[in-house]
Structures are given as C-alpha cells and as structure tokens.
Amino acid sequence: MQEKIKSLFRPTSEDRFNIYQSAEEAKNAKLRNKQISKVLKQHKKEELKKLKILLLGTAESGKSTITKQMKIIHSNGFDMSERLEKISDIRRNIQQSIVVLLSAMDRMKIPLHNKDNELSRDFIMKEAGNPESHRRNEFLDHVEKLWNDAGMQECYGKSHGFQLIDCAKYFLDKIPEIKSPAYVPSDQDILRCRSLTTSIQHTEFEVPDGGHQVKFDVYDVGGQQGERKKWIQVFDSVTAIPFRCGLFVSVLLFINKIDVLAEKIARGRDIAELTKLYPEVFPNFEKFTPSKSDIMEFLEAYPSYNNETCKKSRSVSRHDVHPDTIKTAVYIKHLFMKIVRGELQLRQRITQQAPNWHDGHSCEYFYTCAIDTNNVQRVLNGCRSLIIQNHLRRFGII
C-alpha cells in the first residue's frame, strides 16, 4: 500500500509535460527535451574523447609558464591584444624586483655608490605601496638609475640570500625597451613574466596523432596554499596530472627551473645547508652519487644556448654545467620517485593506504626549463605519447 501511495506522487516522463495548456505546447516541449538530451549525450561523448591535464605544483614552480608554452606550440601563440595586456604585469614585476633589492640593500647594509641615486631610492620606497606607480615612465626612470648603480649590482650578486623573482634581472636589463611607447612584449617576455594565478585557467588545443586530431584540455591552478582548495573542482576524469617540483591516472613529474638551479649553484648557493637543517627530508645527500645514465639523461634535457653545446652527444660532462647542478637535480628526481614507489615517507599519512595502492597509477619524470620552448616541445612530445597510451588503456583498447 505504501508503494502504491508513493507511485501516485512519483512523476513520470509524461507527467512532466502535463503542465502545458495545449497538446501542441506539450509536443514542442517534448521535442526540445529530446533535442537537449541529444546535445548533452553528444557533449558527454566528446568530453570522453578529450585528454584532460591538470597542472599542479607549488607557487612559482612554473605551471603557468608551461601553459603559455602549450599555447605557443599548439595554439598559434599570443595575439596583439594579449601581448599588450602583459605590459602591466611586466612593469609590476620590475616594481616588485626593485623594492625587494632596495630592502635587501638596507638589511645587508650595502650603500648606493652614487649618492645622487638616493633621491631615486627614496622615490621608489615612497611609491612602493602605490599599485599604479609602475604604469608611469617616471617610476621606470628612477628604477633604471638604481639598477645601474654599482651598489645595486653588488646586492644582486648576493640575491641567493633572499627571495627574488627569477625574471628580475631579465626585465631590469630591458627597462629602456620597456619604457618605449612602441614596446610590444615578445614570446620570451611573456614566458618570463610572473603574475599570481588566482583562478582556474583553462586552455584547449588539438595535437595531430596518427592521422587524426587529439583534443587536450589543460587546467592551470594557483599553487598558493589558499588556492589549493580549488584543485578538487577539476580532478574529475583527469587523464594526467603533471606535478611541478580509480582511473589510470598518470602523474607527469616536471622537475622544472633547472636553469635557475644552475644559476644559483654558479653563484655559490646549494642545498647543503638545507640537508643539514632537514636531514629527514633530504637524506644522504652528501653520499649520493648520480649514475652515468642519470648524468647523460640530465645533460640531454639541459638547454643549450650556443652552437657548440647544441650538438647532442652521449657525454657525461659539459663545460657549461656544474657537476653540483647535475647532482642536485638527479637527487631531487630520485627523492620524488622513492616517494612515488612508497620507499620513502616524509611524514605520517592522515589516512592509511595499502602498500600497493599506487599499482594502477604511473609516474614519469621530465627535466624542464619552462622558458625554453625547444625543451618544452621535446617534453610535451614525450608526455603526449604517455598520455595517449593511458587514454587507450582506459578504454581497454590496449
């Protein structure tokens, strides 16, 4: 009896159309409903064909730069309006850089060599809190004077001792060009430009493979801790998760900024101090020795900036790459892979997992330099093959 009563109140597919005043309206409504259902079904079918990639990683790890490279390589790059929009971000990077350098000079007691530049220093620090000051050329004029001061250059030489964005020197050197009214950012300018990602950035492109186009959906999310709560929104049906330094999910580990690592080591900074402070996080670094194959693998990925090193060879040394750079990069790679295999656990898990819980997943690593298009092109070619294989496996084709 209870079921019979419930059935009286359970709407059927026909009841949904009884609210219309005429049979013709109900007929049209049924037709629209059928058309919408068909469109939704087709949309679901198309969505299943797409390969969704979610870029995860800490702040300043290069996720957005990789997304920009994908746009350059696969989506015809940036149009004029997009390039002009980046000018404000580039000028803001210059403002951030000079304020950090001036603060560091004050903390390290490094004086300006040219006393006339003290007026420029006072102007910059006074305008530091003004979010619009970077738009004026007067501001850039003062920055240019300070950047050319020997005291400022001395401070920059010690920048391994404080936090400074990677693109600081690049844009500070280009101030005369950036001040010009005719300035249009190049691809390299856009790649080096830094801006805070506070929303989910979605990029679509198609890649030819085997005579047909494979569709990719790439999601770039903010790496700051406050932004990570948004990550869950784009985890559904993700095919691959490139992490920056039930389904067959591939984690593609991008060990990024190898160029920055090389620069810091060349200026006397390494992770030896960190290994002493946090031996449980960086175990056995001093005793670690990369194998010959590890060294060759890293050198093949490392960007070449001149014709001599452009010719790839199976060598275990390069005059432009410090051995400590290789050791550090390979060590970090080994550290991540041990974590993936469950051989190393840096902290207690909140939820306990079986030892084989990762057996259905895979993790592949790549050494990347996000601002080098050739390097990223090679990496993406390797990623594409892995992702397509997993996508075919997902549907039982292989």
Automatic annotation (TrEMBL):
GTP binds at residues 60-65, 191-197, 220-224. Gene3D superfamilies: GI Alpha 1, domain 2-like, P-loop containing nucleotide triphosphate hydrolases. Keywords: GTP-binding, Magnesium, Metal-binding, Nucleotide-binding, Transducer. GO terms for biological process: adenylate cyclase-activating dopamine receptor signaling pathway; sensory perception of chemical stimulus. GO terms for molecular function: G protein-coupled receptor binding; G-protein beta/gamma-subunit complex binding; GTP binding; GTPase activity; metal ion binding. Guanine nucleotide-binding proteins (G proteins) are involved as modulators or transducers in various transmembrane signaling systems. G proteins are composed of 3 units; alpha, beta and gamma. The alpha chain contains the guanine nucleotide binding site. This is Guanine nucleotide-binding protein G(S) subunit alpha. It comes from Magallana gigas (Pacific oyster).
